[in-house]
Amino acid sequence: MGALDYARQHRARFVDELKALLRIPSISTLPDHRNDILQAADWLLAHLRELGMTAELIPLNGGHPMVYAQWMQAPNRPTVLFYGHYDVQPVDPLAEWTSPPFEPTQRGEDLFARGARDDKGQIFAILKALEAYLKDAGRLPLNVKVLIEGEEEIGSPGISRWMDRHARKLACNMAWVSDGPMYARDQPSILTGLRGLLYTEVEVRGPAHDLHSGIYGGAVPNPVNAVATIIAGLKDRRGRVTVPRFYASVRDPSPEEKASWERLPFREEEFMRETGSTAAPGEEGFSILERRWSRPTLDAHGIAGGWTGEGSKTVIPAKVVAKISMRLVPDQRAKTVLRAFEKKVKQLAPPGIEVEVRELAGGDPVLVMPTVAPIQAAARVARAVWGADPVYVREGGSIPPVTKFDRLLKVPTVLFGFGLPDDNTHGPNEKFHLPNFHRGIETVIQWVEQVAG
Amino acid sequence: MGALDYARQHRARFVDELKALLRIPSISTLPDHRNDILQAADWLLAHLRELGMTAELIPLNGGHPMVYAQWMQAPNRPTVLFYGHYDVQPVDPLAEWTSPPFEPTQRGEDLFARGARDDKGQIFAILKALEAYLKDAGRLPLNVKVLIEGEEEIGSPGISRWMDRHARKLACNMAWVSDGPMYARDQPSILTGLRGLLYTEVEVRGPAHDLHSGIYGGAVPNPVNAVATIIAGLKDRRGRVTVPRFYASVRDPSPEEKASWERLPFREEEFMRETGSTAAPGEEGFSILERRWSRPTLDAHGIAGGWTGEGSKTVIPAKVVAKISMRLVPDQRAKTVLRAFEKKVKQLAPPGIEVEVRELAGGDPVLVMPTVAPIQAAARVARAVWGADPVYVREGGSIPPVTKFDRLLKVPTVLFGFGLPDDNTHGPNEKFHLPNFHRGIETVIQWVEQVAG
């Protein structure tokens, strides 16, 4: 009867099965839930095998296992990698939940439960799309790999390390991730860019030991004043980062993206309310969305040194440490920026001050051109399923596995989310809009057909 | 026979008595030593009465008592206030003491014990000078008040508050303090200036709550970057403080002081070794001694905010707090500078940043002109007793009681120390050079005669 019809006929069962998955409290950050994590992984393993896929658990040293499955019986057809995660956020404050977080409850067209949208509901929509092919036609029109990790809510440390050694296992032609919201209700949205990150710790040292500011103040190097001079010197009056050649490889967003952003219902007052700020300062000459999505920037995250207790202590401390990061955009490279940053920081150090720069984290930005075939296919499907052209948006932060797909697999990833902006992700009363669950299934079914070639 | 002869005849007994005082472990900062504090105060009270003075303990609410004594039987003669302290520093690290800190031990011409120089030995030299008059002639050539506090090593909080209400009790024509070192061996030194202090806490606030730097970075105010901009903006490239009119009331040192400083055996390399610094940066156009003694300056002492733990957290914190102080010189006033500082800090705050300035401590600078009669008298005595012209030095820090004498009693204080630079004050093996103890007694005897008129 066709995969689409199959999916429509089994909607009620799909929701029931999703509820079963949602009942497992697989909170990755709480050690007490280790057994629930393993139970969720086992549940998915059994489910994928039931669909007819070859499936296994991939243990991650000291972490939560990944569920991996594949169906590779379509020779000469492309291979798609689907990625998602089965772990969820903690549920505090529990008192604010209208129904218990691990007792999935339908109210109106919404299904309330922790993980309903992030990400169990979305990854399950993908599995149901695959089922529609496998149970109806007995086969998929292309090759499929599925990777579902259990550490996304704690920063994906295991998968990142694992991929450095085992990327070949995930070799594919394109990837698909559904783990986000649409920009607005009924507005299909495709994420085309993720900023990269270069996160450093800067240690600023002055005198060999703490000094009394009364006796020595005015004639010795002061690391606190020095770190201020350094941080202040890293941006100019127009909000531009002063690291040499910082902007040399920054690419302008594509015309498709720019056109998309102008159509977005973005309101500055709402942004200010959301951030609790009285201003939205940044690099001159760029809109707020550009500053967050397509422009690199620099932020200090924390600083500590000297006397920070109650009252007054007249000390000139020997050292102070600051955390400073840069968000990177295509085609900046974290390694190149690190070298230039370190040099600049040392140049900014006043006399008598020594500086050490340590890299704590680094990841390159990701850009998927809206013109590549998998995105174009997704755009066509968006119109068919959701009744609207998609908007191309970006995200200011990074998604570590997607960065790895870009760098190690060298394939484009379609980031197409089925959530809504008001789904209360990470908060109490997380929900998934069930019409979006079903449209998500149909989106994947149609996209698979489009890219099968 | 005269006070000087009396003092010379009783040298051995004077040292024995000093040892008795040194045996009392009157450590002011350790609660366990509360009884020792009281014992030292009682010991001095009895001793002053024994000399023929009217003496009393002045309790300080919640603190250690002051010992007060007076002899006011010289009508139409001036009144001198002598100040010192009977409390001492802790003794850690105990293992580094050659002889136990509270068993006074003579080695060569030095007497080793905690408090030997700071300040029991020096205040006791004053008492012995008074004894020489009172026991020999039965009277003093002028009126004398003696104030010995027990909280100097913890910042003199009680005496400062007490003086605000009871300054009249200390009414006098001049004050004398012996609580410091000479600039070098055999080089009598008179302290003519103490810098004042304005110590503030600056709270810098941005967004109402912490934000994710990936999502918002580049388009929201960042308090850590802002505090850096503020601190960096408080000094210009030449090391001058940018607070408006900061230097307007700064007085040049007197010609006597300048001439004195040029004669001092100051060596920059030694200063760098002492501070453990590779440079001695500061306000352009001034020597290191001027920067520390006669120029005001600004130092940040500590800073804390945002993520300061291990690793990387991509937060834009809602606020950060910095401790910033200014050292003030004559004729700057802490209150005036505070207003201008607060205004400047707020001007330096970038858009979207709110700043609050809190005053934590404030004290005006003190200047005693080398030309006033009590100093000129001390200079003559220095030549007679120590065989050399005194040098006029300053101190970069403040001595709270002396600030109060200046502001509330409005009298000049002669700050004439009998210590040596290598006396290990506050460290293990503190000592007092006994020839200096005896010369100190003679210095006070002769100075009293000079200023009696």
Provide a brief overview of the structure.
The structure is a homodimer of 453-residue chains. With 453 residues, the first copy, chain A, is α+β, with helices and mostly antiparallel strands.
* Class by SSE composition of chain A: alpha+beta
Gyration radius of chain A (Cα, Å) is 25 Å
- Characterize the biggest β-sheet of chain A: 9 strands, mixed
Q: On the 0-100 scale, what is the average pLDDT of chain A?
A: 95
Number of strands of chain A: 18
State the CATH class of the largest domain in chain A. Alpha Beta
Name the CATH architecture of the largest domain in chain A. Answer: 3-Layer(aba) Sandwich
CATH fold title of the largest domain in chain A = Aminopeptidase
**Number of distinct helices of chain A:** 14
CATH homologous superfamily placement of the largest domain in chain A:
Zn peptidases
- Quaternary class: homodimer
Into which percent range does the helicity of residues of chain A fall?
25-40%
Number of domains of chain A: 2
Q: Please tell me what the overall shape of chain A is.
A: elongated
Largest interface: A-B, 80 and 80 residues
Distance from first to last alpha carbon of chain A = 21 Å
Q: Uncertain runs of chain A with pLDDT below 50, 5 residues or more? A: none
Strand content of chain A: 15-25%
